[in-house]
Write a structure and sequence with these properties.
Length: 366
């Protein structure tokens, strides 16, 4: 399956019928998982200079300053090629110098933590193959694909590892990644992470930081915690989410938009259960727009968590989402929104709403 995105555009009738996510069963080799540990396409061009701090939130300006200094201080560190490390060659990595070798960004959803994390990756003075960027889930998938020891070898030659949305809701995975990070710190790799807090903590202040530092056990001394306050930037001064379209509008737009997919919502949810979340990025390869009919509340938490991962991959790739049925803020039940995974669900609502706004240009161009 090609990983090159298809060109997007609209016309009276597209050359071919719409694609279908439900018809795709991608297989992702391990080397692709390693090669794709870079900031997602949405964050290709972000830099510290493109982050616009909220003037009412001084912690945002402070975070930029601290991260800029942190990046400048990484002009040394692990030697050797990450590719050579994959096969166990190269010189032994340098020991980490004294003092914090990591930063932890704590804050609510939509305050720009991923923007800042990607900016740190771009600003770090090292070749791309000596820097790695991925979500917590992608990191655990890498360990599953390569094995623990091979993952340590692969990443020990890196100068920086950025982990977005560090998960604290799966004790087993947390201990696994904590052990991995300990090995990498010993090898001289600098770390940066954003939070995904424990159930009930809701990403608030020092509680998230304390939980994170406790969960990674002996690594506490290597991290400086930065609290980033603010409201979800996706809703600062922006219009409310557009209302859903009709089934006919969604279908017609899918047929008229090159590279669009068209799926009914319920069958898509069923299909996601058959595809491992590590493959959701590949599932969207070549998709220029996602068109969904019959959006309704998700039936259970397992389904909801899979949908969160798909929303993240679509948002990373800036794929607009046009839908009929219920608006996206009605996807998750009150019980879900008040439960332990509420932060994930609010993030998914926020991101899908942004992509629904992006889909407005598809309807307006017809």
């Amino acid at each position: 399956m090609s990983s090159s995105p298809a060109p997007s555009g609209t016309g009276p009738i597209a050359d071919a019928a719409p694609l279908s996510l439900c018809a795709r069963e991608p297989h992702v080799p391990a080397d692709r998982l390693v090669a794709e540990m870079v900031p997602p396409p949405r964050f290709d061009s972000v830099r510290f200079g493109t982050y616009i701090p909220d003037p009412n939130q001084p912690s945002q300006t402070e975070a930029v300053q601290v991260l800029e200094s942190f990046a400048a201080g990484l002009d040394r560190g692990a030697g050797g090629s990450g590719k050579r490390r994959l096969f166990g060659f190269g010189k032994a990595p340098k020991k980490a110098p004294a003092g914090p070798r990591g930063v932890y960004l704590d804050g609510g959803y939509g305050v720009g933590k991923t923007h800042l994390l990607a900016s740190l990756w771009h600003a770090t003075p090292a070749e791309p193959e000596l820097k790695a960027f991925g979500t917590f889930v992608e990191l655990t998938n890498l360990v599953g694909a390569l094995g623990f020891q091979k993952t340590v070898q692969t990443l020990s030659g890196h100068r920086l590892l950025c982990i977005d949305e560090f998960e604290l809701d799966d004790p087993g995975d947390t201990v696994l990644v904590s052990t991995l990070l300990g090995k990498l710190v010993d090898a001289g790799v600098a770390l940066a992470a954003t939070s995904n807090t424990l159930p009930g903590k809701l990403g608030e202040g020092r509680f998230a930081s304390a939980d994170f530092l406790r969960e990674i056990q002996g690594l506490s001394a290597h991290f400086r915690a930065l609290r980033i306050d603010g409201e979800d930037y996706r809703h600062r001064g922006l219009p409310e989410a557009p209302p859903p379209y009709s089934d006919e509008q969604v279908t017609e737009t899918a047929h008229a938009t090159e590279g669009a997919s068209l799926d009914a919502f319920s069958p898509l949810l069923e299909h996601l259960a058959r595809v491992h979340p590590s493959r959701y990025g590949a599932l969207t390869d070549g998709i220029g727009a996602v068109c969904l009919t019959g959006v309704r509340p998700v039936p259970d938490q397992s389904t909801a968590l899979r949908l969160v991962v798909l929303a993240d991959r679509l948002y990373d790739r800036e794929v607009p989402v046009m839908a009929s049925g219920l608006p996206f803020d009605q996807l998750f039940s009150e019980e879900m929104l008040n439960g332990g995974y509420r932060k994930k669900y609010f993030r998914a609502i926020s991101r899908l709403t942004a992509l629904a706004r992006d889909a407005g240009r598809l309807a307006n161009s017809r």
